[in-house]
Specification:
CATH architecture: Roll
CATH superfamily: Ferrous iron transport protein A (FeoA)
Largest sheet: 6 strands, antiparallel
Number of helices: 3
Radius of gyration: 13 Å
Helix content: 10-25%
Oligomer: single chain
CATH class: Mainly Beta
Structural class: alpha+beta
Number of domains: 1
Number of strands: 6
Length: 87
């Protein structure tokens, strides 16, 4: 597992857990950040923060400190891929 903030633009992962204050966690879970949800990194601001993610049909911008507290597994870590690295 790794922090959501460590995924690069174009990479995706599956949410494992949220280590955030209850009110923030509750809010994000209602937007789709629930265990086993797939999240895709769409783009980063020029200065690197915030980052826009796609999850459950919506786009949401999160600051790095929030994304650091969301644990994900890279999709490529969850399923075997061939040696050419195709998706």
């Amino acid at each position: 597992m790794m922090a959501l903030s460590k995924l690069g633009v174009g990479e995706d992962g599956v949410v494992s857990s949220l280590d955030l204050p209850e009110d923030v966690q509750y809010h994000l879970m209602h937007m789709g950040f629930v265990p086993e949800a797939r999240v895709l990194v769409l783009r980063r601001a020029p200065a690197g923060d915030p980052t826009v993610y796609a999850i459950d049909g919506i786009e949401i911008a999160l600051r790095r400190d929030t994304a650091d507290s969301i644990r994900v597994s890279r999709t490529s870590d969850r399923t075997p891929k061939d040696s050419k690295g195709t998706r």
